[in-house]
Specification:
about 110 residues; mainly beta; six-stranded antiparallel beta sheet; two-stranded antiparallel ribbon; 10 strands; elongated
Amino acid sequence: MANKFKKSDKVKVITGKDKGKISEIISFIPKSNKVVIGGVNIVKRHTKPNKFNPEGGIVQKEMPIHVSNIMHVDLKTNSASKIAFKFLEDGKKVRYLKKTGELIDNKKV
């Protein structure tokens, strides 16, 4: 299966307690088809003191959500859209938004 989402993509949460939030993907977990999004699905974890957090206590962190609960966002219109793939004339496979037709992977195009 082709990976439709990549790190640093702007996405919108379409279901769950954080529905409607727009943020950037921090990391992608391909084995379980989940992503970690900045400021979304924040939970509180009770931690013991350790080397990184010598005091311990309650720490807030982002937890992964499934890719079926997010959609890619067009930065110009700020609307969510599905992602599709197409091949350019030079043979490169790129992602584009179905709603507007705008290329997502146009950094080197």
